[in-house]
Specification:
single chain; globular; mainly alpha; two-stranded antiparallel ribbon; 593 residues
Length: 593
């Protein structure tokens, strides 16, 4: 299915939006709001135009998606150069060392500004639809209001994740409200929870209308899943001005937030296809092949046109040349931490899809590249691959693959987590088990579940582990670790595991020193021996394959690189500072305290 390209009617005719969040007041509307928001086609164009702020160069496309969520205990920016850190660029954003003058972000057109631009567009649409859309009786206009509320919630959730307490703007900007200080994130969370409760009554389930036949449009399953996610964040830990703590607001108590998460997730599960009928790999094949029809695992995607978005560029398997699969020599910017592959069960089908130890060669034979072994310190994520696409990417920087913001597996694991907290592991088990059923053989699932359900704490630890195995490379992990108050704990564990891996110390002492490999008969597929626990150099040498000098050593995975996973205390730098350009233009209302 061809993806839709959205052009912002709001940016063309409704309002002269500001170049940053707090700089310029809007100009007089060129087309009256009463006309736009009483006319379904014009109202739809205005609401769909909110997406423009997602896709602009330095918004989600080029700044937020590549850097937020990296580094965690399962994902990092590949090939960091420790000798260049700390600097004022991309490494600082990922290693918990960002300053207000960061060279990647301290501009008036970066993600922070574009998120507020999108919020302003949403605010204009929400007010217009409430005033002129007859949403009480017009289902088309009600859907649009629900979408505007939801898109605003997405933007605000990511603002809070990225920057902590930020200005709360839930009405269109006026000259009186142009300058605002930071608001307590609890105020924002409560507004988003209320907005999404309203939105869930305005939009239809996937395939409930012609609009919700596409996962590029907001549906009730995504609204409820997003409300559950926000509830878990609101009820969890985060860095505040007085340290890392839970909210003090009784309305955001852990019990209340887990209850919302449980109820919303169960409603989604009861209305969506069973996860048991949705293969793990198929979800990512559909994503790479631009299949946006609703009814599978994907619940909502940030839509990028074919010539926009840097999703494979950042998270795909690296191609070193223009070859048979792509005319864009990119991919492999971010990747899994090298220990992650070895922590999966050897029969876990998620392992080889998520963690890829090869890239595609720079040298071509008859125009075709082949898979070649990549360094242990720079694995590729394999969920997104140019070779899985149905079209050849020709852009230098953009690949047009959507960003999958939420999928059904997340809803199952949120349900399992919430129910375990409220009711215990016996009732929560049925929502964890489907995740394992499609990943592992039945006997291993039974053994795992018996151990996981032994206690509430054991089940929570299983959730922590399974969310790592399930979502590595999807930029959910960092926010999960923060809300669990496990960020530094797990990053330190990751450093320790990488140190042991490089030295082949337990639990990695049963791995061979070398890898053994050769190209298959198809001329491009790399066959590798030596990646599994229990493999030996003796057995590898007997194969007659080529071998590398060494695969695991401190020379291949340097201590300095491992320690660069973070360079400042992560628990003191869970959020980015507001960039200096916005501090300077805030009329004294903003600061980084």
């Amino acid at each position: 299915m061809k993806k839709i390209v959205y052009i912002s009617l709001l940016s063309l005719s409704l309002t002269g939006l500001m170049s940053s969040c707090d700089l310029d007041a809007p100009s007089q509307s060129a087309l009256d709001s009463s006309v736009i928001f009483s006319t379904p086609s014009l109202a739809e164009a205005a609401v769909m135009g909110i997406h423009q702020s997602f896709g602009e160069t330095n918004s989600y496309r080029g700044r937020f998606l590549p850097y937020y969520g990296i580094n965690s205990d399962v994902e990092w920016i590949n090939n960091m150069e420790p000798t260049k850190m700390p600097d004022a660029g991309k490494y600082d954003l990922c290693t918990y060392a960002a300053t207000a003058t960061n060279t990647q972000m301290n501009t008036t057109n970066n993600a922070y500004a574009k998120f507020y631009e999108g919020i302003e567009r949403a605010n204009q649409a929400i007010v217009g639809l409430r005033n002129y859309g007859n949403v009480e009786t017009n289902a088309t206009m009600a859907q649009l209001l629900g979408e505007a509320l939801t898109l605003r919630a997405v933007l605000y959730l990511d603002l809070v994740k990225g920057w902590g307490d930020v200005p709360a703007r839930f009405e269109p900007i006026t000259t009186e409200t142009m300058y605002q200080g930071r608001a307590d994130r609890d105020v924002i969370y409560k507004q988003l929870l209320a907005d999404l409760e309203e939105a869930s009554n305005l939009v239809t389930w996937p395939n409930g209308s012609s609009v919700t036949q596409s996962v590029e449009r907001v549906n009730k399953a995504f609204v409820k899943g997003l409300r559950a996610r926000i509830a878990l964040y609101a009820g969890g830990y985060s860095q505040r001005t007085d340290g890392i703590r839970l909210s003090n607001d009784p309305e955001l108590s852990r019990t209340s937030m887990y209850t919302i998460a449980r109820d919303e997730c169960l409603d989604v599960i009861n209305h969506c296809p069973s996860l048991a009928n949705l293969a793990f790999k198929d979800n990512f094949l559909r994503l790479c092949q631009d299949v946006v029809s609703a009814g599978a695992e994907s619940l909502w995607e940030i839509p990028f046109s074919d010539g926009r978005g840097r999703v494979l560029y950042t998270f795909g398997v690296k191609h070193n040349a223009k070859d048979q699969y792509t005319q864009q020599a990119q991919g492999g910017v971010n990747g899994p931490l090298p220990y992650l592959f070895y922590d999966y069960d050897v029969e876990d089908i998620r392992r080889d899809i998520t963690c890829v130890p090869y890239d595609w060669s720079k040298e071509l034979v008859n125009g075709r590249s082949k898979q070649e072994l990549r360094s242990v310190k720079s694995w590729c994520f394999g969920k997104l691959r140019y070779e899985w696409m149905n079209r050849i990417v020709t852009s230098t920087n953009d690949d047009g693959v959507n960003w999958q913001y939420m999928r059904l597996a997340d809803v199952y694991l949120m349900a399992a987590e919430a129910i375990n907290e409220l009711e215990g592991p016996a009732n929560a088990a049925q929502y964890l088990k489907p995740i394992l059923d499609r990943a592992l053989p039945a006997a291993k699932v039974s053994a795992y579940m018996a151990s996981a359900t032994a206690s509430k704490n054991a089940f929570f630890n299983a959730i922590v582990d399974q969310r790592a195995f399930e979502f590595a490379g999807e930029s959910l992990r960092k926010a999960d670790l923060i809300r669990w108050n496990l960020l530094k704990v797990k990053l330190d564990e990751a450093k320790d595991k990488m140190m042991k891996l490089a030295r082949r110390e337990a639990p990695y002492n049963d791995l061979p020193e070398k890898l053994y490999y050769q190209t298959a008969e198809d001329g491009e597929t790399l066959m590798i021996y030596g990646l599994n626990h229990g493999d030996t150099d003796e057995a590898g040498e007997a194969l007659g394959y080529e071998s590398n000098t060494t695969w695991l050593s401190t020379e291949k995975l340097e201590d300095a690189l491992i320690n660069a996973l973070y360079t400042q205390n992560p628990d003191e730098n869970q959020v980015w500072p507001i960039w200096q350009t916005f501090i300077d233009s805030s009329n004294g209302m903003l600061s980084n305290d």
